[in-house]
Amino acid sequence: MRAKITYFVLAAVLLFYFVLVGSRGVMLIQDATLVTVTFGVAVLVLPLIGLWFLWHTTAFARNAGRLARELEAEGGLPVDELVRTPGGRIDRDSADLVFAKRQAETEAAPDDWRSWFRLAVAYFDARDTPRARKAMQRAIALHDGRPVRP
C-alpha cells in the first residue's frame, strides 16, 4: 500500500511539473521570436515525452497487478522460498537457485503467461530489473492474447 501512495504522490508531482514546464513553453512561443518559439517547442516536447512514459509505466503496473491478482486467485503465486540476510536482503545464491528453477519452468511452458510471471518475479529477486520488466511484458502479452516479441 505504501508503494501505491508513493507512486501516486510522485505521479501527481510529475503532472504538476509537466503543467508548469508546458506553460513556460507556451509563454516562450507567445513571445513570437524565432529563438523563443524554437525553445518553446523544445520545452513542450519534454512534458509530452514525460506524459507518454508515465502513461506506459502506469499501464504496465496496472496490468502486472491484474495478472498478480488473477494468479493469486488461482493459488499460483510463487512462494517466497528465498534465504535472506540478517538485514533482510535476499541472498544472491538463493535468488540464483530460484531463478534457475523458474527459468526451467518457463522453458518447459514457453506459451504460459503464468510461468513468465513467475520468471519475472525471479528476475526481480535476482536484481535484474530490465529482464524482469521484459518477462512481465511477455506475460501480459501472452495473457491478453497479443503478439509476443521474441
Number of helices: 5
Largest sheet: none
Strand fraction equals under 5%
Low-confidence stretches: none
Through-space gap between termini = 34 Å
The shape, in one word, is elongated
Radius of gyration: 21 Å
DSSP strand tally: 0
- The structure class reads mainly alpha
How many domains is the backbone divided into?
A: 2
SSE order, as H and E? HHHHH
State the share of residues found in helices, binned by percent. over 70%
Quaternary organisation of the protein chains:
single chain
Organism: Actinacidiphila oryziradicis
Keywords: Membrane, Transmembrane, Transmembrane helix
Transmembrane segments: 7-26, 32-55
Protein name: Tetratricopeptide repeat protein
Plain-language structure description:
- The protein is mostly helical.
- It folds into two domains: 2-74; 92-144, Serine Threonine Protein Phosphatase 5, Tetratricopeptide repeat (Alpha Horseshoe), CATH 1.25.40.10.
- The protein has five helices and no strands.
- The protein is elongated, with a radius of gyration of 21 Å.
- 19% of the residues are buried.
- The mean pLDDT is 91.
- Keywords: Membrane, Transmembrane, Transmembrane helix.
